[in-house]
Amino acid sequence: MRNPQGRGFDFLGYRFGHGPLLLARQTVGNHAERLLRLYERQAKKKAAPNEVARILGDYVTRWRRWCSAGLGSLVNWTSTCDGIRPIQPSQDPGAK
Questions:
Q1: Is 8 helix (H, G, I), strand (E, B) or coil?
Q2: Global pTM?
Q3: Residues 35-56: pLDDT tens digits?
Q4: Residue 70 CB neighbours (<10 A)
Q5: How much of the chain is helix, strand and coil, in % rounded to 5?
Q6: Which residues contact 87 (CB under 8 A, 6 or more apart)?
Q7: Which one-letter DSSP state was computed for residue 79?
């Protein structure tokens, strides 16, 4: 599939273009929004702090698993959600 403007496109949560495969900006935004809504729902239910942490942690774990399925080793999980960027093999802390 070729984009005549050469700008790339978003498809199924990923950004395709001339560079490396990335998460689409909207994907990261949707993740942050859903995480906030999940937190607010738990606060409204007056859930215990450890229960809130578990529920939010489970959601983030599942989201990261989904990201890793498409991006594989390109994801640097030491970054914050809004700073997820592809990493070069030489930047990979686990690379030898």
A1: coil
A2: 0.66
A3: 999 999 999 999 999 999 999 9
A4: 13
A5: 55, 10, 35
A6: 73, 74, 75, 76
A7: S
For 23, the token pair is: 């998460």
Handedness of CA 49, 55, 69, 17 (dihedral sign): negative
Reply yes or no on whether the pLDDT at 4 is more than 90: no
Give the type of residue at 19: G
| Identity of the residue numbered 40 | E
Longest dimension (CA), the chain: 53
Indicate if the pLDDT at residue 81 is higher than 50. Answer: no
Q: Which residue has the tokens 């998460």?
A: 23
* Residue 28: other Cβ atoms inside 10 A: 19
